[in-house]
Amino acid sequence: MLIVDKFMDKKLRIDPDNIPNHIAVIMDGNGRWAKGKGMNRIFGHRNALTAVRETIEAAAEIGTKAITLYAFSTENWKRPKIEVSALMSLLINSLNKELPTFQQNNVKVNAIGNIESLPDNAQKTLFDVIEKTKSNSKIVLTLALSYGSREEIVNTIKNISKKVVNNELNIEEIDEKIINNHLYTFNLPDVDLMIRTSGEQRISNFLLWQMAYAELYFTDILWPDFRREHFYDAIIEYQNRERRFGKTSEQIIPTKK
Q1: Contact status, residue 31 vs residue 75, Cβ threshold 8 Å
Q2: What tens digit of pLDDT does each residue of 18-56 get?
Q3: With contact defined as beta carbons under 8 Å apart, do 237 and 15 qualify?
Q4: pLDDT in tens, 72-123
């Protein structure tokens, strides 16, 4: 009962009129969590699904419109083959298992990254879940898979350059909107809040353009231990910050006469 009361107290402290539209999450610490229990890294990945589920559900409940999870980076391909293989299998199994929950909670699944580099069976399962949830509208869950922000930006520059060369686009027309429309995240709002677990304080090549004005929240909690309570902590911290976007405090909150 005390735990429930604690969760509810934090949830009630959240201002429904100041909810981040787009939250990005770097799910870090699976390996260290497993090592602390004398197990291998794969054990940590397998025990992180509860954190994923609770985070998505909590985000949807408070009214967040989009949440993006950094599930597998372009750099992660450098990890031992057995771990990469296990992660791909876990992706497939998790998507199949969670599909009924996505449907029940009105979650639309999306994916960004070099999806073609994923194994064929992973691509098939991913696209199947995306297709089956495409009409859902409560929250967009984006999985960043084989994703690297620098690679995304390079591809964006190449695609825009091709249009300029082919006279489909005038170079003087290139602005932030044009760039946004050529990113993987063209259908998502900019990130308002980025959460990273495990105590590391880096953004690790994740949504560099999209997080230009994001609030960054770092917690020492290892990802497999991350729960609603910790998610609420991040939201409360976000709401306690003053987002000025280059303006002064007086411009954001005019002085009362």
Answers
A1: no
A2: 999 999 999 999 999 999 999 999 999 999 999 999 999
A3: no
A4: 999 999 999 999 999 999 999 999 999 999 999 999 999 999 999 999 999 9
What CA–CA distance (Å, rounded) separates 15 from 186?
28
Assess contact for 192 and 238: CB atoms under 8 A.
Answer: yes
Furthest CA-CA distance within the chain:
66
Q: What phi and psi values does residue 17 have, to the nearest 5 degrees?
A: -95, 5
Q: pTM here?
A: 0.92
Residue among 155, 60, 141, 80 nearest 113 (CA)? 155
> What does each C-alpha distance from 79 to 31, 84, 200, 205 come to in angstroms?
12, 6, 19, 17
End-to-end C-alpha distance for the chain, whole angstroms: 47
Active site residues: 28, 76
Query: 152 is written with which tokens?
Result: 């995304």
**203-207 — which CB contacts under 8 Å span 24+ positions?**
203/26, 204/26, 204/70, 204/73, 205/73, 205/74, 205/75, 205/148, 205/149, 205/150, 206/24, 206/26, 206/70, 206/73, 206/144, 206/147, 206/149, 207/24, 207/68, 207/144, 207/149
Cβ(206)–Cβ(26) below 8 Å: yes
Sequence-ordered list of residues with C-beta below 8 angstroms from that of 28, at least 6 positions apart, any chain:
196, 197, 198, 200, 222, 223
CB-based contacts of 122, cutoff 8 Å, min separation 6: 88, 91, 92
